[in-house]
Amino acid sequence: MDPSNPGIAQEDSVKAIHDIYANIGFRPPPKQFTILASFYMINQISIVEVICKPVSLATGTKCTPAIKYSPCGELMHDTHAEVLARRGAVRWLMEEIGRLRTAKQYVSDWLVETGSKDQNDSDESPPYRLRPDVSLHMYVSTLPCKAASCLLPLWLVLTIYQGGDASMGYLAATQDAQVALLKSQSAHLFPKLRSHEASRGRDDYNRLGVLRTKPGRADSPPALSMSCSDKIAKWSVLGILGGFASRFLEPVYIESIVIGEFPQNEEEKSPLRELVKGDCERALRTRIGKIEGLPEGYAVHPPDIRFTNIPFIHSKTELDKVMRTAGSCNESLCWLADSRPPEILINGLKRSTAPKNRYVEKYRPLLSRIAMFNLYNQTLQVLGSRDYPLPDNLSYGGAKANSTRYQRAKTALTGPNGPFSGWIRVEPRYQHFTLQGNFNTPPTILSSSST
Predict the structure, then answer these.
(1) How many CA atoms lie within 13 A of 389 on its CB side?
(2) pLDDT at 410 over 90
(3) What is the pLDDT of residues 26-71, one digit of tens each?
(4) Most buried residue, 54, 193, 217, 274, by most Cβ within 10 Å?
(5) Residue range 201-228: average pLDDT?
(6) Are 213 and 226 in contact (CB under 8 A)?
(7) Helix residue ranges per DSSP H, 221-330
(8) What are the pLDDT digits (tens) for 247-264?
(9) Are the C-beta atoms of residues 53 and 337 closer than 8 Å to each other?
(10) Judging by DSSP bridges, how do beta strands 128-130 and 343-346 pair with one another?
(11) How many Cβ atoms are within 10 Å of 439's Cβ, its own excluded?
(12) 187: phi > 0 → left, psi -120 to 50 → alpha, else beta; which?
């Protein structure tokens, strides 16, 4: 990898991700496409040596309807590629801490101790951070949460649509012209929402710079998951770690997002890219603005937006060249570096899991809430924390609330005075399971959203 040329380093990283995907051997069913996302680390060892390590990889385009949520933590609510890849990266980071603490003479190229004296019992002073020359990057094979068909003339796009979340401009640019005009002229049919309230999917996509829920299709059952654009914007303030991993690591931010699947030989390619880059800037930077009350260590850190021309073999664009696709794949692939074999999920559970086994530990998805809860407990053990073992009656939500610095940062962003005050919160009853998967009665007051 050539450290003197960032463009070459980026393309080499994307190729490495695609190679891992190809070696896994996952393939969507005929006439179905999918989206690929990955988190990868870059270590600038010297001026002549750079190491790239993909740490997580995922595919997926689905999310679980709210009516099917489980109170026991074994079900994945959101199986979009970007979300699974982020959860995978968080798990890899916690597992890397485990390797540092338990493997003899193991040296990490990615993490280093902070030297904190109070390093085991508070997220105010976590024991680890990224090495100074290490950065985290994200790749996604297409725009977050977007759907595309044929191109609209750019003049129409620029006349009617002027941004929004990271896919609204591109959605407009790739929407059928008659449908786009109809939607732009029917805003009065959608309910009037206050500026901070979230829109349902793609409803009223003339409404710009706002929070949106999944799924995008109006005929899909509603879910409580926010759009991938919104989640990436959230990560640009809170980092990717969430409540558990923030106990062990200083905030980790995405330095760049590499986006694929753009028209390559179109006359309007450059203006379209500028339009999309502008949408991403608004979605991930401008609409957040200045946030008051962020604790030390947290800041608004929007990623740099980049593009790649490397095609993804199972994208809609590539598959449509051979045979028109009929829809997106229902399955999701999850892969972690230095970990267990890849998992394939469908409907939020590991493929082929019998109903009687869904609550059994070995059938739980590695990235499920209860699996991450147990990994948190194991990491407390290897660190020698006095909080280990966690009480049998401690709930998932209760354990996450103990990461007080992270919770203060989240309140600054999604609390009543924050720019994302309209963030949809998961009901408390879905966060009150224990390490064993037992369901505790929720307390009277709990408003923390899931991460």
Answers:
(1) 7
(2) yes
(3) 999 999 999 999 999 999 887 778 899 999 999 999 999 989 999 9
(4) 54
(5) 63
(6) yes
(7) 228-238, 242-245, 269-281, 316-320
(8) 999 999 999 999 887 654
(9) yes
(10) unpaired
(11) 15
(12) alpha
What 3-state DSSP class applies to 387?
coil
SS3 51: strand
Render 328-351 in DSSP notation, one character per residue.
E-SEEEEEETTSSPPEEEETTEET
φ/ψ of residue 284, rounded to 5: -105, -10
Interstrand relation of 331-336 and 49-59 (parallel, antiparallel or unpaired) = antiparallel
Average pLDDT over residues 429-435: 94
pTM as predicted:
0.85
Average pLDDT of the residues of the chain:
82
What token pair was written down for 12?
């080499």
* pLDDT for the residue 290: 84
Task: Return the residue matching tokens 């209860």.
Answer: 370
CB of 47 within 8 A of CB of 41? no
Count of Cβ atoms closer than 10 Å to residue 28 Cβ: 18
Cβ atoms of residues 82 and 144 within 8 Å:
yes
Tokens standing for residue 181:
């005009």
User: Residue 166 contacts by C-beta under 8 Å, 6 or more apart in sequence?
Assistant: 143, 144, 145, 146, 228, 229, 232, 276, 279, 280, 283, 284
Q: Which H helix or E strand runs over 444?
A: none
Dihedral-angle region of residue 259 (phi above 0 means left; psi in -120 to 50 means alpha; beta otherwise)? beta
